[in-house]
Amino acid sequence: MRCLPGILLCAALSLPAARPALAGDVTLMSRDGAVEIGGHLLDFDGGTYRLDTIYGPLAVNADAVTCKGAACPGAEARVARFALSGTPVLGAVAMPALIEGFAAAGGMTVERAADGRRGLFRLRDPDDGTLRAEIALTTGSTGEGFADLLTGGADIAMADRAILPEEVAHGREAGLGDLSASHRRRLIALDAIVPVVAPDTRMGDPGRGLTLETLRGLLTGEIVDWSRIGGAEAPVTPHLPRPGAGLGRTPEARLLEGQAPVPSARQHADAAAVSGAVAADPMGVGLTRLSALGGAVQVPLAAGCGTRLLASRQGIKTGDYPFVVPLFLYLGAPQLPSLAGAFLDYLATPAAQIAMRRAGFADLMREEIPLARQGDRLALAIAEAAPGSGLAELQRMMSVLRGAVRLTETLRPGPETDEALSQSGIEALARALEAGTFDGHTLILAGFADGGDGPDADRALARKDAEAVRDALRAAATAADFGRVRLEVAAFGALLPLACTGGLPEDRLPEAMAHRLNRRVEIWLR
């Protein structure tokens, strides 16, 4: 037997012993007739034959062969079927567009239909109308997507947050294994929760921003009139999505710190409805998604020392804005039909990511941020520099980073969502290293800390984090040639903060949030 690329997956498979065997032997022949393999048909998922052969279990790409024998599956069995369920943030607009784009890239046509609450997308061969795939799409909420995953109602859950520990436990109980494992999760785009007002707001000047404490006061009813914060004499009207409408559990909890919104807050079906209502209400303030901003005006968050945090595409990618919403797909089974695997691979392509950007999300394509565009951060670094050695440390940092550009991958230790984003960043960098993207260059892994433990301790913590990232990259990029690219560790302690830790407490971010933003490992390329 010969193994030809794209025809046979020649590694032995670990097949569940409990799976019932399909009766009968078959012979698979490559379409050019050069390769033939026979064996007992164990399974067929619409895209891959799994055979028990004299060579052991083998997987064979169905698109590359023809099947002969009474046990060969019929045309209906060769249709790849899989179902997605979960957050409408993805399911309402983005996912249908991605399915259409995937079909077009594969030379297939798409027919839309409905089956109760589910939308159906039938992908056909344009020449003979052969049905290649049927994709079911159900929108509800992230929690409902995970519930469908557990009950077998979906193969893929669409999520606007990282999976919760209790959902991981339920997955194990249902026999799905560890749903939090990195190979069961695909990050496909990013969004952010932002505070918004109307263009003709009674707040006054939105550009001056709001402290987090003030924003919480407006939304929880502690501040009931705009005049309390320097605006016009007018009552504040909070606008929020209804409970479960999809702001994202973790970011919303961070923003409100578990406080309940004022009971009189006007509730809307989704983030887009919030944006529309706020845009038409000069006395309104609300929380929405950047992707659904519409005609509303985003209000910056005051981060102390005169700095402002505004959600932008690059700020979301780097995580320098605190309320990032990751958009994940979680896989209910490690193995899906081969066409479903091709669809997941398509989501990482530039064409799919451009479609996500056009839909208002922050895409995952790597961007470069020159040192010359770090003006605000450098100004804050100078303002926050420690007496004595502070200037010397700044000069050292500038000498290391001069001539380099910052990449949008930024890695942070922290809660589940940050860990998931950091792991996705490691995987993206590892793929680039293996592809030779950085050959002939130096990747500077620049560690930063929060500044709470003194210069020496801060530098030690920053170096420890940067070395951990270096080790993780080396472990993940097993096929990379590290003789062609240099990984350089640099530790800058509390230099270049994103959030100010000085000034009045009421004018800056909460200490824990500032700590989470400031402690990070940035990736610079030279």
Structural class of the secondary structure composition? alpha+beta
Uncertain spans, ≥5 residues at pLDDT below 50?
A: 1-21
The number of E-state strands comes to 24
* CATH top-level class of one domain: Alpha Beta
C-alpha end-to-end distance: 48 Å
SS field, number of helical segments: 15
Helix share of residues? 25-40%
CATH superfamily of one domain, by name, is: OmpA-like domain
CA radius of gyration is 26 Å
The CATH architecture designation of one domain is 2-Layer Sandwich
Question: Mean of the pLDDT scores?
Answer: 86
Taken from the alpha-carbon principal axes, the silhouette is globular
**CATH topology category name of one domain:** 60s Ribosomal Protein L30, Chain: A
Task: Describe the largest sheet.
Answer: 11 strands, mixed
Q: Tell me the strand percentage band.
A: 25-35%
SSE diagram, text form:
Layout lengths: L7 E2 L15 E6 L5 E9 L3 E6 L2 E6 L3 E4 L11 E7 L1 H4 L2 H12 L3 E7 L2 E7 L6 E9 L2 H10 L4 E4 L5 H9 L11 E13 L14 H9 L16 E5 L7 H8 L9 E3 L2 H9 L4 E6 L7 E2 L2 E2 L5 E2 L3 H6 L5 E8 L6 H9 L3 H9 L9 E3 L4 H10 L5 H12 L3 E7 L4 H19 L7 E7 L6 H22 L9 E6 L19 H8 L1 E6 L1
Parallel strand pairs: 7-10, 7-11, 13-14, 13-15, 22-23
Antiparallel strand pairs: 1-5, 2-3, 2-6, 3-4, 4-5, 8-9, 9-10, 11-19, 12-15, 12-16, 12-19, 17-18, 20-21, 21-24, 22-24
